[in-house]
Write a structure and sequence with these properties.
Layout: H1 14-36, E1 41-47, H2 51-67, E2 70-76, H3 82-94, E3 100-103, H4 113-118, H5 131-138, H6 148-159, E4 168-172, H7 179-188, E5 192-196, H8 203-207, E6 212-215, E7 233-236, H9 249-253, E8 258-259, H10 267-286
Helix pairs in contact: 1-10, 2-10, 6-7, 6-10
Length: 290
């Protein structure tokens, strides 16, 4: 991927990079279709009536259309049991016309979300949520797809020309789909990684050592500008009510050499990566070579 243009006010904008990924994915989908006659298909599963989940699903279906990917959406009611959901996902996993499976989360409280995730075959886990995908990613092995937002962060860093080898990266957050996987991806690029969280003692002093800060703690404007080392690169993966991230943007921008805004930074990358990984999954399943 070509290095993107960084605006004069030191912001890394996700939309230009996401647009490039979408264009590349559309071309990849067309190649798959021309070689096999098959259009890649993403199955999305939504359980219940969570308004935010409905919004996210609409966005995903829209991106599928833009990328030339067939979308198959399954809506289940909020009384669905774990067994019913696992049975459905298992059927999708066995369906050769489905190349990627995404379970929109969170699911209702009576559903064992982890059991549902683990019903997704690793080869179709384009959202990077299964144990198999995580362990393969952590050991830097092929045959899996990383979680979409962490992979989007990595491609943004690459596009911005940020050197990772030997640098100290501090990840604030330890969720299984963001903090932990992004730490593994950074390690694979030879960064030295410290994983912190909201209960880390003397967190500002640790952040002060970081060349790269990934904020994924889920607390609005948690990271303050005076925590940062001068010239640090700040990747804000948070999205909170009021359209604010996990970093206090105004104070951090004055100190950072590069910073992602919220909205418009990491956010646009997530769905673009989902489309990219769905196309890659289809190519692998259908034996299409680059």
């Amino acid at each position: 991927m070509l290095r993107m243009s960084i605006t004069h006010d030191n912001k890394i904008l996700g939309k230009p990079v996401a647009n490039i990924i979408m264009q590349q994915t559309l071309a990849h989908v067309q190649k798959i279709k021309s070689q096999t006659g098959v259009t890649p298909c993403l199955a999305t599963v939504l359980v219940g009536e969570d308004p935010a989940s409905h919004t996210y699903i609409r966005m995903k279906l829209n991106r599928c259309e833009q990328a030339g990917i067939t979308s198959r959406h399954i809506k289940l009611d909020d009384k669905t049991t774990t067994q019913q959901l696992v049975t459905l996902i298992t059927e999708l996993g066995n369906d050769p016309t489905v190349n990627g499976i995404l379970l929109q989360h969170p699911v209702p409280s009576q559903v064992d979300e982890r059991a549902a995730f683990e019903a997704i075959p690793v080869c179709k886990d384009v959202d990077g949520v299964t144990y198999g995908s995580f362990s393969r990613m952590w050991f830097n092995e092929p045959g899996c797809f990383p979680s979409c937002t962490p992979q989007g962060i990595m491609l943004l860093l690459q596009a911005a020309g940020v050197q990772l080898k030997g640098k100290h990266a501090v990840v604030i957050g330890r969720s299984p789909i963001l903090g932990k996987p992004v730490a593994g991806l950074l390690l694979a690029k030879h960064a030295t990684v410290t994983i912190c969280h909201s209960r880390t003692e003397d967190l500002p002093s640790i952040v002060k050592l970081a060349d790269i800060v990934v904020a994924a703690v889920g607390i609005p404007e948690f990271v303050q500008g005076d925590w940062l080392k001068s010239g640090a690169v700040v990747m804000d993966a948070g999205y909170n009510p009021g359209n604010v991230g996990d970093v206090h943007f105004e104070s951090a921008q004055k100190v950072a050499s590069l910073i992602t805004p919220v909205p418009g930074g990491v956010g646009p990358m997530t769905l673009a990566i989902l489309m990219q990984q769905t196309a890659l999954a289809a190519a692998q399943q259908l034996g299409v070579t680059e």
